[in-house]
Specification:
seven-stranded parallel β-sheet, seven-stranded mixed β-sheet, 43% helix, globular, 977 residues, single chain, alpha/beta
């Protein structure tokens, strides 16, 4: 009977790879000291370059062979396996080809050469010179040279891809030739359900990225009716023709130079599944349909769009349609004035001829570039209109691919101004995104039939979808538009490739009390006046100082002290205007100095502005040039970046952990701004947003279309701590005396041998729990208590000694509690469980939970929507009174408790009233309001014992009663019927 173990998976993989064109190798042919399969290497040279066998000494073990193989290993170490395969090596005046590339159509000689390549897969390869018994499960070899290694695990034996990752991190020494940087393309950790890869092994810090197809717009792989869920890897991705394409067009080692230190660092690039998939699908469509098509690629922020664009641009230069080159030139449109170096470098490294890439900065540059034989022209959004003019005028006999890079949206307002000028009087909104600008430019021109458009974006707007999306007929006869390819935020977050910035989102309510200082009572537009009053209060020096205190205290205590991102975490302060930005810069610098903190603050804004009678720029305040800001943020002692309309979009810094928002955000700008935090880092496990200007509903509405349908949990309820404490006590794991005794000894600084016995007694009680579900529940509740208390202790206006003692005790007890014996179950639950589904350990106020439904946008309105609202004229006194009624005129004893009653409990109880529900069902809004007010009065009577002050205000304060009645009706009407 066949055993469904790891060996059976290994056998299946090798069998199916052999069916796909691979040769099974013999482990003894692998020479660990040279890290190659000597038999297949020699056979490849003999069959393709027979005149080199004798000069290289490949037939026998001689000093000549040793010198050549040492030369080969040296070149692989210096340049990487991909470079050596593509280019071969030179030795003693002879050139040795080590691989033959994919042949062009109709080239029989090249086809014969390609067929001579030897794709070999070998099982149980003994890779170590010193530890000869060690073996890696599989090695994929091309012409004798290893290109991939594999560690396999099997879910049937309770081992998963994570165990394979740990095996690489723990047991595979990067000092050994096979596992050294650049010696192979990548290392795969694999089981029968999931796949991950790593391009550089670094022991415990080796970073494995997912290589899954995705399932239901999330992580993982779909069920495979024809085999194992991960067989796409060895049957499709690593089939010889596909692997050849990866070697020739995707895998790469790039060298990046630190502009400050001058130090060069090499980094290996290998595509993730969605990157490989989108580029290949786009190229296939070009080959089938030629020029004149439009493509929308919706890939999550931080998903590697720059590399996807580079791979696409490079291969579009050689793509064909109907037997000829499909595009004469490839135009890459970015909105960075200084193009992203990675994009340029990656494209050039593939083309291997730097002169084929050129920048087009002025009208006429495109024509000159084409005449000079330049295949890839890179331009900015400012110059894009002139490029379109050239294409649409006297270059109609040429074909173009226009690749639009939205990934790096503008870091300043100059882009908007430039586009507005080009559009001859069309005024641009201050917060127009790069996507808006591109849409307006193209709207002014008809989409050109001799050009294909490839638009990359994480957050497509309705115009973008309609302009570039794939039309899809609806059942009612209308047409909807979808992206050509998508890689969702949901999948990126579930795969751990980006961080969920909404898992730790905390809105901060501002409470004010204004007074009228004029005796007259002039009339003002109520809405505009209220907005100005809020801006006045928020911008008041005292308010800025107060908020600065909150920011700095939080950053030092919760970010720096907790050593977020390994002690390297940075923060960003998003402000609503340049004056406010400058004020925050000085306030934060002052607050840091007052605390004798070693850290510094950086400011970012455009232009020259006056501050206290002096003209200042960001360079003057920072003490270094503007172009150095991004690099300086990463350099100690700089830790906090204060911005005004800069770095909110297109700024990719993995060290950004915390964001303090004091600017109203909505729509795409909200998504792009908060997404600055989502870039992954091996030591980054969470992020934090403290928002002074927006509420959770606004942020939810902004993210809804781009992260599927979202449901936002409410603010943390302090009463849940009482419930958790009671539930924990009921298990009998400890008693109050034990807690008091432990805390007393702990605070007295007693040694471990006086502390551990108290904890071990509770651990023994935990182990004795007869039901493993009880162990899971207790440990999960204990972790939830710690998370919730750690957050509430920083925001509640009161403290609790009992909570604090429990927190100290549980903080030491939880790490000692063993996991239940059933490993696969306990690991899945205990590592992820907590009451609020919070991922982070600290400061979790609320989290967005996603439904499996596509987000939708309304189409662009056909009718004009602009109008001027009639001002609501109110007396100044009425405006002040209304403002204070809504923002803190009442001195509540427990404001948080009252807010919860008003926003949650009261609307829920009113919505459950039967007479109110009947009135709604009868479509009678007038009667429904009457029933709503009646139900509200009954609910308030029931709250007398719970909150006397709230009931008294409702009874005695007519304005509050009227406001509450309206708010409850608005919140519940037609939502409870």
């Amino acid at each position: 009977m066949q055993r469904l173990n790891e060996e059976s998976l290994e056998t299946l993989i090798v069998t199916q790879m052999r069916e796909g064109g691979w040769i099974e190798g013999v482990p003894n042919d692998y020479v660990a000291s040279y890290a190659l399969d000597l038999r297949h290497f020699a056979a490849f040279i003999e069959s393709t370059q027979p005149d080199l066998v004798e000069p290289l000494g490949l037939a026998t073990e001689t000093p000549t062979r040793h010198k050549f193989l040492a030369r080969l290993q040296g070149e692989i170490t210096r340049r990487g396996i991909v470079h050596v395969l593509r280019n071969g090596i030179d030795h003693h005046g002879r050139h040795i080809d080590l691989y033959y590339p994919t042949p062009a159509a109709g080239n029989s000689k090249a086809r014969g050469h390609f067929a001579a390549n030897r794709f070999v897969v070998t099982r149980q390869v003994h890779h170590s010179v010193s530890s000869t018994g060690d073996a890696v499960d599989l090695v994929a070899i091309v012409n004798g040279l290893p290109v991939f290694t594999f560690e396999l695990k099997n879910n049937f034996t309770n081992q998963t891809v994570e165990d394979a990752v740990q095996q690489y991190q723990r047991d595979r020494d990067p000092r050994e030739p096979l596992f050294a940087f650049g010696r192979t393309i990548a290392h795969f950790a694999l089981d029968d359900q999931r796949a991950r890869f790593c391009t550089e092994l670094k022991g415990a810090s080796s970073w494995f990225l997912p290589f899954d197809q995705g399932f239901r717009d999330g992580a993982g792989n779909p069920p495979n009716p024809d085999g194992v869920m991960t067989d796409y890897l060895w049957r499709q991705v690593l089939s010889p023709p596909s692997l050849a394409g990866i070697i020739e067009n995707y895998a790469q080692i790039v060298v990046e130079k630190n502009p400050k230190t001058g130090k060069k660092v090499s980094r290996a690039i290998f595509p993730r599944y969605h990157q490989l998939d989108v580029v290949r699908q786009l190229l296939a469509d070009v080959e089938a349909n030629g020029a004149g098509r439009r493509y929308l690629v919706q890939h999550s922020a931080g998903s590697g769009k720059s590399n996807s664009i580079a791979w696409l641009a490079h291969q579009l230069t050689e793509s064909t349609y109907a037997g000829r080159i499909a595009f004469d030139s490839i135009i890459v449109v970015t909105d960075r004035i200084i193009l992203d170096n990675q994009l340029t470098q990656t494209i050039k490294s593939f083309l291997q001829v730097g002169s084929t890439v050129v920048h087009a900065d002025r009208s006429g540059d495109l024509r000159q570039a084409i005449n000079a034989g330049k295949k890839i022209i890179i331009t900015t959004v400012q110059k894009f209109p002139y490029i379109l003019d050239d294409i649409g005028a006297d270059l109609r006999d040429r074909t173009f691919a226009i690749v639009i890079d939205e990934a790096h949206s503008s870091q300043g307002s100059k882009t908007s101004a430039a586009v507005s000028h080009v559009l001859a009087g069309v005024e641009a909104d201050e917060e127009d995104t790069f996507e808006d600008q591109i849409n307006r430019i193209i709207e002014g021109k008809k989409l050109l039939t001799n050009a294909s458009y490839f638009a990359f974006t994480a957050t497509p707007k309705n115009k973008t979808l309609e302009m570039f999306g794939e039309p899809a007929p609806n059942a009612d006869g209308s047409t909807s538009f979808r992206p050509f390819h998508s890689y969702t935020m949901k999948q990126a977050i579930q795969e751990g490739f980006i961080i969920d910035v909404l898992s730790n989102y905390t809105p901060v309510g501002s409470y004010y009390k204004l007074m009228k200082t004029v005796e007259d009572d002039p009339e003002f537009d109520a809405k505009r006046a209220s907005k100005k009053l809020r801006a006045y209060v928020e911008g008041n020096e005292h308010a800025i100082a107060q908020k600065t205190e909150i920011m700095v205290e939080h950053f030092l205590a919760q970010v720096v002290a907790k050593r977020k991102i390994g002690g390297r975490a940075r923060a960003m302060v998003v402000t609503s205007s340049i004056p406010r930005c400058i004020e925050y810069f000085h306030a934060i610098r002052k607050a840091l100095a007052a605390r004798k903190s070693p850290y510094q603050v950086i400011v970012a804004f455009s232009g020259e502005h006056e501050y206290k009678g002096m003209k200042v720029t960001e360079a003057i305040l920072n003490g270094f040039p503007s172009k150095a800001i991004a690099e300086q943020v990463k350099t100690d002692p700089n830790r906090i970046l204060v911005v005004a309309n800069k770095f909110q979009t297109g700024y990719d810094e993995p060290l950004l952990h915390t964001m303090y928002v004091d600017k109203p955000l909505s729509g795409v700008l909200a998504v792009q701004t908060l997404s600055r935090l989502n870039r992954a880092h091996p030591a980054k496990h969470d992020t934090f947003v403290l928002d002074f200007a927006n509420d959770a509903d606004e942020i939810q509405r902004a993210f809804d279309p781009y992260y599927r349908t979202t449901v936002l949990a409410g603010e943390t309820d302090a009463n849940k701590l009482h419930d958790l404490a009671n539930d924990l006590d009921a298990f009998g794991i400890y008693n109050p005396e034990q807690v008091d005794d432990f805390v007393g000894r702990y605070l007295a600084g007693e040694p471990r041998d006086r502390l551990d016995p108290l904890l071990d007694a509770s651990v023994a009680e935990y182990i004795e729990l007869s039901d493993e579900d009880d162990q899971v529940t207790f440990k999960g509740n204990a972790k939830a208590f710690l998370r919730t208390y750690n957050f509430l202790s920083t925001v509640l206006p009161y403290g609790s000694s009992e909570w604090e003692k429990r927190s100290i005790f549980l903080d030491h007890l939880v790490p000692k509690l063993p996991a239940p014996k059933e490993e696969d179950l306990s690991t899945g639950i205990l590592e992820n469980i907590d009451l609020e589904s919070y991922r982070a350990e600290k400061l979790n106020a609320m989290k967005i939970v996603l439904d499996d439904e596509d987000g939708t946008l309304d189409p662009v309105p056909a009718a004009g929507g602009a109008y001027r609202a009639d001002p609501e004229l109110e007396r100044l006194s009425a405006i002040v009174r209304s403002f204070n009624d809504h923002f803190g005129n009442i001195e509540w004893n427990d404001a948080d408790r009252v807010e919860r009653f008003i926003t949650e409990e009261i609307p829920r109880l009113v919505s459950e009233d039967e007479a109110y529900k009947n009135a709604q069902a009868n479509d009678d809004p007038v009667n429904a309001r009457v029933e709503s007010d009646r139900a509200l009065s009954q609910v308030m009577l029931r709250l007398i014992s719970d909150d006397t002050q709230l009931f008294k205000e409702f009874q005695d304060n007519s304005s509050f009663k009227q406001w509450l009645a309206g708010a409850v009706f608005d919140a519940t009407y037609r939502k409870s019927a």
